[in-house]
Amino acid sequence: MKRFFLLIPFTAVAGTLLFLTACNTNQSGGKGQIWERELGAVANEPLNPADAQKELNLKVDLIPEGKYGRRIFREMTPQYITIHSTQNPTGDAYAHAKALNRGALRGGVCGYLCWHFTVQDNAVIQHIPTSERGEHADFDGPGNRYSIGIEMCEHQGNNQVVTMERTAKLAATLMYHHKIPIENVRAHYHWPREGYDPPNKDCPHFLLENGKPGDTWRWFVGRINMHHARLVRYDEALREQKIKEEEAKRRKQMVQRVWSIVSDWVGLS
């Protein structure tokens, strides 16, 4: 009986500690930490950019040249990447491609909305070349004039976390190929829209806190940066391998020259 009474206070203390720990975890955690546990850490080893491209499952379905969002050719040298979310619970990436290809989405400076890529959990669809300007951010502002627009799907049945990861990999690949620095990866929020109240859109809303970039956005950008680092490390590994091969070649040539000199000197040649 005495043992039973001794157990009660111990159990109460243990339960209190577990409760406090759980509370602290929820307070110090966040969506980014939850998603990080679900996705797992980004691998450290170098990644061949060609293999990274294959992982995206990229499908090219361009708006017809000269029509709708591409009815006016406007060349662009991309300096930024802008991340959006569709806020459309019924349309997947293929539905958005179909809408863009038939000019169903009106707006923007040229009269039709368009962006470069739409991402869902199992595919990426490209709508316009990255060398052409889109209509997805801020009318005639720098977001449209200089950024690659990426829309993340939100339709029912789509795995949102996997979609974000595929988007992070796409952004990293675009950074690599276009030499875009990580600080130039922006949320749609970053580009104010003249005439709107509020001018800065809550987009992509599930990566923002109270309509603004915060810890969750920083987590996402960090994830992009880690994927990009793998591509950069691949190039570095190739350079190191090339240096080693050239050094080995020089040593072999030096040995051959020395052997030739010695052979001539002792009359072995």
Sheet with most strands: 6 strands, mixed
Count of DSSP helices? Answer: 7
Question: Overall mean pLDDT score?
Answer: 88
Low-confidence blocks of residues: 1-28
Annotated CATH architecture: 3-Layer(aba) Sandwich
In CATH terms, the superfamily is Peptidoglycan recognition protein-like
Query: What is the domain tally?
Result: 1
Describe the model.
This protein is α/β, with parallel strands linked by helices. The protein has one domain: Lysozyme-like (3-Layer(aba) Sandwich). Helix content is 48%, strand content 11%. The protein is built from seven helices and eight strands; from the N terminus they run H-H-H-E-E-H-E-E-H-E-H-E-E-E-H. The strands form two sheets. The protein has a six-stranded mixed beta sheet, sandwiched between helices. A two-stranded antiparallel ribbon has the order 7-8. Strand 7 and strand 8 form a beta hairpin. Helix 6 packs across helix 7. The termini are far apart.
List the helices and strands and how they pair.
Layout: H1 2-28, H2 31-39, H3 49-55, E1 58-60, E2 80-85, H4 93-101, E3 117-120, E4 123-126, H5 142-146, E5 147-152, H6 160-178, E6 185-187, E7 208-209, E8 212-213, H7 215-266
Parallel strand pairs: 1-4, 2-5, 2-6, 3-5
Antiparallel strand pairs: 3-4, 7-8
Please supply descriptive tags for the structure shown above.
alpha/beta; six-stranded mixed β-sheet; disordered N terminus; two-stranded antiparallel ribbon; 7 helices; 269 residues; elongated; Lysozyme-like; 48% helix
